Amino acid sequence: MKLSVNSTVSIAAASFSIYAYEALKDELENVDELRFIFTSPTFIQDKAKKEKREFFIPKLNRERNLYGSDFEVKLRNKLEQKAIAKECADWIRRKVKFKSNASQEEMGGFLHVRNQKQSAYVPFNEFTTTELGCERGNAIYSMVNVMPSPFAEEYLKIFNEQWQNSDKFKDVTAQVLEYIETVYNENAPEFIYFITLYNIFNEFLEDISEDVLPNEATGFKNSVIWNKLYNFQRDAALAIINKLEKYNGCILADSVGLGKTFTALSVIKYYENRNKSVLVLCPKKLYDNWNTFKTNYKNNPLVADRLRYDILFHSDLSRERGMSAGIDLERINWGNYDLIVIDESHNFRNGGNVDDEELDDDMELVETRKENRRQTESHQARLNGRGANRWSSESHQTCLNGRVVTEEGESKEEGKANRYQKLMKKVIRAGVKTKVLMLSATPVNNRFNDLKNQLQLAYEGHAEQIDDVLNIGRSIDDIFRNAQSAYNKWAKLQPEHRTTERLLEELSFDFFELLDAVTIARSRSHIVKYYDTKDIGRFPTRLAPLSRRPKLTDLNESITFSDIAGQLNELNLSIYTPSLYIFDSVKDDYEINMEGSGISIDGREKGLRKLMATNLLKRLESSVNSFRLTLGRITDYIEQTLSVIDRKSDGAIDVTTFTDDLDSTDSENDPFVGKKSKISLRDIDVVRWSNDLRHDLEILKLLLLMLKDITPAHDCKLQMLVSDLKQKFQSPINEGNKKVLIFTAFADTADYIYEQLADRIKKECGLNVGLITGSTDGRCTIPKFPISFNNVLTFFSPVSKDRDVLFPKATEEIDVLIATDCISEGQNLQDCDYLINYDIHWNPVRIIQRFGRIDRIGSRNEVIQLVNYWPDIELDKYIELKGRVESRMKATVLTSTGDDNLLSVNEKGDLEYRKNQLKKLQEEVVDIEDMDTGINIMDLGLNEFRLDLLTYIKQHPDIEHAPFGMNAVVGATDLAKPGVIYILKNRNAGVNIDKMNLLHPFYMVYIADDGTVICDHLQPKKLLDVMRHVCKGQDKPDKARCAIINKETCDGRKMQHYSDLLAKAIDSIITVKEESDIDSLFSVGESTALLGEVKGLDDFELITFLIIR
After folding, report:
1. CB within 8 Å of 103: residues ≥ 6 apart
2. Which of 560, 475, 479, 466 is nearest to 518 (CA)?
3. How many Cβ atoms are within 10 Å of 29's Cβ, its own excluded?
4. Backbone angles phi, psi at 837, to 5 degrees
5. pLDDT of amino acid 1037
6. Angstrom distance (rounded) from CA 548 to CA 842
7. CA angle 1084, 1087, 1093 (to 5 degrees)
8. 663 neighbors 786 (Cβ within 8 angstroms)
9. How confident is the model at residue 442 (pLDDT cuts 50, 70, 90)?
């Protein structure tokens, strides 16, 4: 029916589309007045808080239909909506009024026309091209009844009654116009960037939404801990809770100094409010940190929260009885914990065999211990017939097939019943369902299995449990296997090609999907960049690190570092490997595994020898005194052994582990430490062994003689430390702050520095010195000081440790603290602003962790200083020397097999990796995540874009109403060539080729003006980087470039060029799929050719696009 001049139209429908106006605009120009009622609440302010997002979605979709419904995609993809919207808005201002049903009462849709006669069209659900019959919808058929008079008058009467009801129906004309105007107004590039992020990542916003927390969260936000959190910590806490509820586990991998402990405490409080039982597993050195927050102590800032979690140590998992932190391990109900928080979870990244049958084997061994022992004693009796007792009977151990079982029934075979496996079996798999929160700044070392082993704790080692909730389409085991394969391939590339970007290109979509599901990782730079830190202070400014290279001594013609290193290279350290001298005829009796698999006697000894060889080099680099002490201990042990051999005794040799000579990291984590073995001298070629021992003894005595004259007065390194301390005391880098933290890897070195300098600093400078090595409660020069590990730290950093609460009358402080790596993790010592690495740890990450004790957000110091004491040798030579030492320790074993490749490719790569890291640390202080090689979890996802969006959405919550199809214009740069970036949404779920599109169902394509694809949809991170590069900070439209585009397109009416480019962009996606389908037909496995058909333009919805000119 044709509308005549001065006719009126009244419409009650769910939505209004500008494309319906476009289809009827000539007719609608004849209308005198059009009244429109939205039959459900639309374009009106919500009165209540959105408790559930699904109730809000229909309203949002009704509003978005203004710019075209789901079935008007073809019209939207012509890109003419800007011109259409402008014409429609002009028509609305002249002739149209909109009202919306503001009640929850239902209302049917109809259309009434008063022309030369009246007609009503029923039902009339939407004012869209689909409802008008111009476009095909998804209905099998559609019937609209035309109601003539007098029925038409009745419909008009109903409409008028509602139109006049101001209580239930509100005028929304201004709102509709405002929405339409957004379509044709010029847009800022930054706005288009955030529209892109919102559409791609809006599900992430739900992960950190308080609205989706379980109802049991009553009082959560009223807790003391919640109100002490910074904004970035709150975001992490909410995300953790949601991930724990959904996936049963989460790894918080925030960088050093971002307060992971407080974030975890807020999560603990949430679960304790729900009457859940919580266990904190931490290294022993961090006990005081965790204990403070749960006890009724004066210095507990969270005392009002009455936290009640249990605390146990990682090492307690290997114990069956005894007391630990006041808890009886024999009586503890391991399986009753609802949540386990594992601090420094990277200690569990090596994992273990968690197969059910393997673990059950341990229990079976306990039950059959007596029978095993009987068989073993029979075996020993045969050996004892030769006059030698090769196994100690003191520990009442039995052995069968390589497995040792103690009287207590604990299996000690390597690979069985380690801490990881006991955690899995005793705590996680037993009893109630246990959620696992893991805290670590370094969850990944150099293999993805590190991450997998930790995540296994969340799903009890049963992959199918997490596979179901992830709903990725592939097993988590397959995902990690493929990721590791990609990493191994990447690791073999030449250094110049081994970039983070190259690794990201090799990894598949589902790996990123997995990481996003179960990890949270933010760096220091992320926090500064994406959060307002005014309320929390800032990170202090890092001064360029100072590098010191003191000589060994100032004595003339004295031995040098290189001289000593050369002598060390001549050592074979056979004292640690008696098993290599066992006669071939009895090797089987000692269950020797010459390939070194497992921890057999010789495997343990070879590992220990290699450890001690590199340890000698470490101790030399640490201090002359530490090195001299170790040489003396090895010398004494060799002399004692030679004495036993010379007496021609039939006794047994027990290989000592020298744990005092290992640095704190080696002695705590190395599998060779603490395991004893005994070998009968009757079974050893003592002549050959004695010769090698005497060879080493001669070198060791020569070294001791050459070092004899290097007293503290002639120890250049110690004297340089004195000079640096004096300079710091006289000229503090922050006014009035004289505090210095000195780190060393060895307790011997720490004791040496304290003995030589503590009294001197007290006497000459009036400053107190403290010492912490982990093996004692500490030492301090303050008279009558209440010595304890925690008190020393509290007096060194009184502000961060709340000393005034514990010791309100205290007047003295500790200004210089000498410590080992027992405090390099988990401690907040930010009162200090000056850190000296008296020796350089082999692992560069440890250096960064040390500096993290003072480099923390909220520090009162303006600047902080790192000073590194390097050995008096070029770094390249130093690393090469380490390689030679390790090769030397392998030589006697490997040469017998004809293998002259003494260092494996991985070991050589590791040396190169550490060299590059250490070189970088000579020039600047870097964050762990900024080390330019290796795996960084923060690079393995799209988290930085989510953080971008999170910051923006808090200030611009209405972005969710932004219409599809908008664009902006921005200038080209060296990184952004002229062209168009299209952001699309796939309407067909079958397009995600080989699971390679990280953003599925969203697709990004960057295409040049000539139709050439600059960057395809399989590189979304690169595309997002380009968008951020050209858009971030561009918060105003580029009017000059917009004017050029408007002139070229006649104000958006002639968009054929950009519509053609869009078609080519979509065609590039389809082409990739077709090529993949063809490849899959000729490959093993399921073909993708039958999984989903993509027809073309209509299968993709344009979200937005960015024109780069």
Report:
1. 41, 168
2. 466
3. 12
4. -90, 100
5. 94
6. 17
7. 165
8. no
9. confident
